[in-house]
Amino acid sequence: MPRAPYNPMGTTALITGASSGIGAGYAHELAQRGADLVLVARRQDRLEALAVDLAEKYGTVSTVIPLDLTAGDAVPELVADLTNRNIAIGTLVNSAGFGTIGAFVHTDAARQLEQLRLNVIALTHLTHALLPDLVDTAARHPHAAALVNLASTAAFQPMPHMSVYAASKAYVLSFTESLWYETRSTGLKVTAVCPGFVDTEFASVAGSTTPYRSLTVERVIHSTCSALDRRVTPPQVIVGKRNALLARAVVLSPRRAVLSIAARRH
Ligand SMILES: NC(=O)c1ccc[n+]([C@@H]2O[C@H](COP(=O)([O-])OP(=O)(O)OC[C@H]3O[C@@H](n4cnc5c(N)ncnc54)[C@H](OP(=O)(O)O)[C@@H]3O)[C@@H](O)[C@H]2O)c1
Predict the structure, then answer these.
(1) What pLDDT score does 208 carry?
(2) How far, in Å, from the CA of 256 to the mean position of ligand 1?
(3) Which of 42, 119, 156, 208 has the largest count of CB atoms under 10 Å?
(4) For residue 1, is it within any domain?
(5) pLDDT average, residue stretch 4-27
(6) Any domain includes 105
(7) Which ligand 1 atom is at minimum distance from the Cα of 200?
(8) What percentage of residues in the chain have a pLDDT greater than 90?
(9) Which CATH number goes with the domain that contains 116?
(10) First to last CA, the chain
(11) Which family does the UniProt entry place this protein in (predicted)?
């Protein structure tokens, strides 16, 4: 596979959801590759501890911006903050997200809407605001700019009892793949990352007590970076061979069978 290693050294990467799990994993990887970082999530103490750790390990300069991305003015505020600090973003990792479990009718409507605001609206708004910076970085520093959006294997089929989450991730996958095409001549590396279950705080936030066979955060980061290091980054990365096979099988299977198998997972 022709390679063009992703090298963000000397540029700045913004990671949402950096206080935990997969987002924190990307922060370590990008810091190791020489990027300065902007770390965004609500838990300031976690972000500050991460910034100290990254500075000690890799000499990384991190800017911590505690923010609730579901707030109506969060993205304009964040962009204004970046402008005031004179920070241009070369890589955007949209990792902030959560899921909810339960039959839709019994779930809390406010929580479902909050999920859409984070997984879909904030991701779209932030991508729209920063895409010109990303494309500009790609033009000036070949192989240094990337857009990484966290979708999920939930994007490939409807999921009874996680209906809104699966629909939100189907959106992220479709949206990101379209952007991959629209920006393909710019040098920007664009991909939607689709892991299955990963061992993070995700399950407890979603309210799950079921033990799943989980991927590690390291595996997600490794698969993402293998994709970013390719000369042509693929529009989607499915993490894990079994997950890739299942995603392909879903396309060929009758929809009712897919629904009944997906429903058994919760
Ligand atoms: N773990 C899995 O099984 C799995 C599988 C497939 C896809 N994914 C996707 O991967 C991404 C990362 O999930 P994860 O596994 O790393 O879960 P996680 O450990 O729960 O991390 C979620 C991150 O999102 C942030 N966040 C939540 N609400 C926020 C808000 N209102 N404003 C700003 N930040 C917010 C959290 O930080 P604060 O609480 O500090 O705000 C945290 O940093 C998500 O998009 C998820 O859907 C996860």
Answers:
(1) 85
(2) 30
(3) 119
(4) no
(5) 97
(6) yes
(7) 19
(8) 94
(9) 3.40.50.720
(10) 38
(11) Belongs to the short-chain dehydrogenases/reductases (SDR) family.
The total of structural domains in the chain comes to 1
* Probe target for ligand 1 pocket from 98, 157, 220, 265, with the most ligand atoms within 8 Å of CB: 98
Active-site residue 58, yes or no? no
Domain containing 94 equals 12-263
Ligand 1: list residues with CB < 6 Å: 16-17, 19-23, 41-43, 46, 68-70, 95-98, 118, 150, 152, 195, 197-198, 200-202, 205
pLDDT in tens, 126-139: 999 999 999 999 99
In a domain, 7, yes or no: no
d(CA 118, CA 251): 27
Is residue 125 one of the residues assigned to a domain?
yes
The tens digit of pLDDT for each residue in 223-262 reads 999 999 999 999 999 999 999 999 999 989 999 999 999 9
